[in-house]
Amino acid sequence: MRLALGLTQHQLAAHCTAMGRPMTNTALSRTERAHRRCDIDDLVVIAEALGVRATALLPAGVCPAHPRHTEADFCCRAQGVLLG
């Protein structure tokens, strides 16, 4: 999504920092490659900096509003994704 918007890691990290969540491009790079845990605070600010909902950054198939998925299903899947 970052690339589709034409943003570098430096630019996105700077946006996140300006929004009050200090982030380096190294931390962002590690998060993108799943070499660093992405906590909910990071997820929310990255999504806001990209101009999308946080759920847009979760893997396909995880949809908390879908009637087939319970809240517990969503939380468990999201936790597995975010914790790497």
TrEMBL record:
UniProt domain HTH cro/C1-type: residue ranges: 1-57
Database matches in InterPro entries: Cro/C1-type_HTH, Lambda_DNA-bd_dom_sf
SUPFAM superfamilies documented for this protein: lambda repressor-like DNA-binding domains
Name this polypeptide is given: Helix-turn-helix transcriptional regulator
